[in-house]
Amino acid sequence: MTLEEFNAFCAGLPGATRVVQWGEAHVWKVGGKVFALARADAPELEAAVTFKCSPMAYELLKDEPGVRPAPYLASRGLKWVQRFSDGALDDDALSDYLRASYRMVVAGLPKRLRLELKQGLA
User: What is the per-residue burial (b if ≥16 Cβ within 10 Å, else e) of 13-44?
Assistant: First the structure.
């Protein structure tokens, strides 16, 4: 998944917003909370994509080829991984994990924000 494809995918999720921070990382948030980030040397190149995952997904993914515990985030005990190549996790699977990350973050938002997101879907 290129940086352009990553940004296009995340832009399609309801209420998702992008900021560029932390040394040119494209950081996607919902309700002000990060659900994914990516960086690449150029927009058309494969991106290193970092996302939140469930404890079970973390255990399954962290040792797969092309995936590692997310730098900085996982070292703080958070269940985040980074796909740095498509060795074991292709773009379709990555998209599924990005959707799951988004849903986990939405589920943790205050009820008012969750309702606003739902109303935006109607």
Answer: bebbeeeeeeeebbbbbbbeebbbbbbbeeee
Say whether pLDDT at 14 is over 70. yes
Residue 82 near residue 67, CB atoms below 8 Å: yes
Q: Fill in the amino acid letter for 71.
A: P
Helices 91-107 and 111-121 pack at an angle, to 10 degrees, of 130
Three-state DSSP class for residue 51: strand
Q: What domains can be seen in the chain, in order of their start residue?
A: 3-117 (3.90.1150.30)
This prediction has a pTM of 0.90
Helix (H, G, I), strand (E, B) or coil at 74: helix
